[in-house]
Write the structure tokens for this entry.
Amino acid sequence: MTAVKHMKWWGWGNEGVGFHHEDKPGFAPFVLQAVGLDLLTATRAGEPSFADLKVGKSKATAAFVKQLAAIVGAEHVSTDDMLRVIHTYGKSLRDLVRIRGNQIQRSPDVVVYPADEAQVQAIVDAAVAADAVIIPFGGGSNIGGSLEPHRGEKRVVISLDLGRLREVVAIDAESGLARIQAGAQGPDLEAQLNAKGWTIGHFPDSFTHSTVGGWVATRSSGMQSDKYGDIADICRGLRMVRPGGTLVLRPLPSTSSGPSVREMILGSEGRLGVITEVTVQVHRVPEKRNIYAYFFPNWAAGIEAMREISESDATPSITRISDARETGFTLATSKERHGFSKFTAETVLPALMKRKGWNLDDICISFIGYEGGTAHAKRQKKLTDAIVKKHGGMGVGEGPGILYDQKKFDTPYLRDFLLDMGAAGDVSETAAPWSRLIDVHKNVYAAAQKAYDEIGVKGWIMSHLSHSYHSGACLYFTFAFVFKNDPLGEYNIVKNAIQQAFVDTDATISHHHGVGREHSPWLAEDISPEGVAVMQALFDGADPGSNFNPGKIIDAGY
Amino acid sequence: MTAVKHMKWWGWGNEGVGFHHEDKPGFAPFVLQAVGLDLLTATRAGEPSFADLKVGKSKATAAFVKQLAAIVGAEHVSTDDMLRVIHTYGKSLRDLVRIRGNQIQRSPDVVVYPADEAQVQAIVDAAVAADAVIIPFGGGSNIGGSLEPHRGEKRVVISLDLGRLREVVAIDAESGLARIQAGAQGPDLEAQLNAKGWTIGHFPDSFTHSTVGGWVATRSSGMQSDKYGDIADICRGLRMVRPGGTLVLRPLPSTSSGPSVREMILGSEGRLGVITEVTVQVHRVPEKRNIYAYFFPNWAAGIEAMREISESDATPSITRISDARETGFTLATSKERHGFSKFTAETVLPALMKRKGWNLDDICISFIGYEGGTAHAKRQKKLTDAIVKKHGGMGVGEGPGILYDQKKFDTPYLRDFLLDMGAAGDVSETAAPWSRLIDVHKNVYAAAQKAYDEIGVKGWIMSHLSHSYHSGACLYFTFAFVFKNDPLGEYNIVKNAIQQAFVDTDATISHHHGVGREHSPWLAEDISPEGVAVMQALFDGADPGSNFNPGKIIDAGY
């Protein structure tokens, strides 16, 4: 049995770890008010039973499994039901609802764990020769529906798990470049880099369970992207196994060698081949890394401040502001404070805000990060503080920023907790030009409310801005409601309404979660029908047999 | 007759403008020493005679011309020989040698000047229906061989000139985005932007005669790319006419909507359709914009300083350093100095350098630019100066920097002057990781020398580094020699040797000139055969009839 460790088959993260709110006294009242769910009386569902799960029989013949075993060794290929289930879905809300609801339409037939690129090449060649389907699998954290086999797939489906390829192969210290195997998860690679004084600077929410190959395959973005760039910037070279040979893009700072093949592979979600290695930019661990918290009197003032920061000479590493609702949520879900900290948060600050004439229901919390040399970080803060002040905001120091940093990666556990209680909690994110952000926010809220009304539930939605660029930013929405009768149907009503509001307001279908099957229906509205035609031409030409993760991103004709 | 103005049919730039060296006393001795050409005794060829030029008969039928005239108006379609010749080539050295040598293999059959996107759509649809070939034409400044019709092309070839689409359509001031028609040349669009306080910050050497559509089609980069990015960063959205419909990419700061169609169009050199509009990032004209000059004791010290600047907290707008040979050229081709300036340049500086123990044959001149608010520009300079000093360099003030800025766009005229004298002068540029730059430089010099030896001429080569990135930079080579017997054959020997040295030393075939036909032979060595296969799949699928600029970037199978 292979030594690759997986997340829970039915939810996020490691076995035995989960969300709890015993130390967050404001949480239960908040949930009651937001979605009408009383955590104190609600019954919590237990862990689903694997024994009850209906899993289809593997279509892989013994001969084919033997062929794969000859490549990777018998212990690294499996048709075991548990492994097949683990490789059926990612961790989207739809995935979790289906796995909890015993709805597995189509599992992979066989899971294979190659040790190196040569084995990946052999698997790919064998698979294509046998007209099998290959779905690359990294950490399994995907929330776009990129991992599930097509429900009508009649061919053998291989889940190709990169979990054994997790080394930082080499660091070019002069160029700030690191060659990393595609299956390395965030903590794997960051630890190997940190040991030599480097950081990748890429910290998506999924960091603890996602891989560098997965980041590239879905165009990921991390919370310090303002400084380090999105993965599309960070990825300078890569290797991808294709039928009969490996595509090699040597690391380059920039090039004008035609349409960017690198950018065709970024975001390709397994449709062009299997990424085995990525060369990324790495940076010396900075001398200073501070995250400061600020408050703004309202959303519009905060957005305008973020815009002005992006246009200024200041270069913070993080610019993030929560709207009034998310600010309320953040304050409610904080751990209980004591002593001076409690006095400051609950007495001094509100009094100060009231004296400024702020409406406490409108206030927005913001986190801004500064990295680099001590003098540089200090200067960035000074430049930024002046802009914050101009827009009526005020700094409240580093304490809450540190808190933000620490709890960052725990959020996905909350979703499982809510599902245990019969409620949906999920996210949709987008990006748009600065001039459209206020409208995107307004229209998404209206669309979500309309969806809740249609279902007949009390729903919740909140948002923050993060990832600032010269011409715009990402808006990240979190929504929640208690299921009424039909979890998937009701979820779709809300999720679809939000996605439609994105494309109707000049915003994209996703800033950093990819397309998969979840966002595919809006692709033509995002990049125009001719844009889809060009992308389809690429997929059809590069994978004429539809062997590589077919039906993802574009479902047409499959 | 259409009102679109073109460059000289036989050379660079405007009629009546050319390079002269009367005010540069060091130029003639320099040329004599470098390539053995005595400008004082050499005979200068006159302007070639158009009447002598052999131009093939247009294959366009009267009916087809009439059909195009019905779309754009009779005065905007032409089969005139002069216009067909102007649209046959770009301005590469091979183009200039061939046009001077009366070697026109295949001219476009008809030149058409649409007024707007609807007319472009009608032309494209008519062309594809008639199985004609469409070659989009911007300013005609291309030096990659991207504009010439394939010599064996049997179908009617249309040169689709975007010269009438040159407006800045709209500016979104809040987002820093400007919609610009594809045919707008640098000075057109910059003037329109400047009038409203904006700049695009994109200043390639070809600026005065190239278009925003051309920049996108070839992945251009301008001299301030360290601050403003390459055109791939600057271009946020675009419109491209394809058969039956227009591909529309709305401006977005970032997106994860699958493989980037925007990045497929960037660098596509007309192979996917006709770009009609580009939405670019624009910036407020900065308060300060300074270019300072520095000297380094040698090339290695200068490169290391540039690398350290790129890794530091400093964010200059330009980082450029010439090697010792290019430094010699720069000093030799300066205008004659007088008075105090002469005394400083010719007496004080050399004395100072000698006192530092520098070998005057090794010194390298560097230009570093600072932009932004006054305090910001000052601080960038301070951070940079410290790094320069650490690597033994010294600043010599702003004067030479201003000079650099002013003469920047005049360089291409020098090439025509040398051709008049029977000599080649041309450029090849690349990009590589920092750790490979010294080797790239060394290997290119060795390869060029070997090529000169093979031909049996005294050749010249010089280089500078520009466009710094986190992980590497661009190296730009300029080479010259006097033709012996066979200009094109001898040029190819040198050019090919340089390009081969690039790919053999982990460098790319071009940083910002594109591929066209000139660099196509090395594409597989640059992006691997599988990379070419994926790109070919895109071209084949998106243009099954090979109607769009066929044979460019990848020539295979055409």
User: Anything to note?
Assistant: The mean pLDDT of chain B is 94.
